[in-house]
Amino acid sequence: MERLTFGDGKCTMKLEASEQHSNPMGTLHGGVLCDLADAAMGMAFFSTCAEGETFTTLELKINFLRPFWTGTLLAHGWVVQRGKTVGMTECDVVDENKRLIAKATSTCLALRGEAAQGR
């Protein structure tokens, strides 16, 4: 996985998916898609954090919209709403032809002070 863009509440991650990422049926494992989307959304949210602030994911949802086997995937994550404590992010995972493979959302909790230590 490679980070292509990062900042201002947005992040794009790239994955070159191969057979090693497949499930027993031969298509890309859903956990890999989830990890890719989670990374893009998490980095997008983190780009909005102030000094000394970090976050944790409260909830993650993903919809798998079409099968994928091997090739290049891009995960475009962005912050939809950033409150003082809670925020929401979204992510589109697309193939090299810009077809939507998966759509994800997450809810993030901003952590400060002692709660942010060691994260």
- Please compute the radius of gyration using only Cα atoms: 15 Å
Strand order of the largest sheet: 1-2-4-5-6-3
How much of the sequence is in beta strands? Answer: over 45%
Query: How many β-strand runs?
Result: 6
Could you give the order of the helices and strands? EEHEEEE
Task: Give the biggest sheet.
Answer: 6 strands, antiparallel
- In whole angstroms, the N-to-C terminal distance is 21 Å
Q: Number of helical runs? A: 1
The class by helix and strand makeup works out as mainly beta
Which key features would you list for this structure?
119 residues; six-stranded antiparallel sheet; 14% helix; single chain; mainly beta
Summarize it.
By secondary structure, the protein is mainly beta. Helices cover 14% and strands 50% of the residues.
If you had to describe this structure to a student in words, what would you say it looks like?
By secondary structure, this protein is mainly beta. It contains 1 helix and 6 strands; from the N terminus they run E-E-H-E-E-E-E. Strands 1-2-4-5-6-3 form a 6-stranded antiparallel beta sheet, covered by helices on one side. The mean pLDDT is 96.
Strand and helix layout:
Elements: E1 2-7, E2 10-17, H1 30-46, E3 54-64, E4 71-82, E5 86-95, E6 100-111
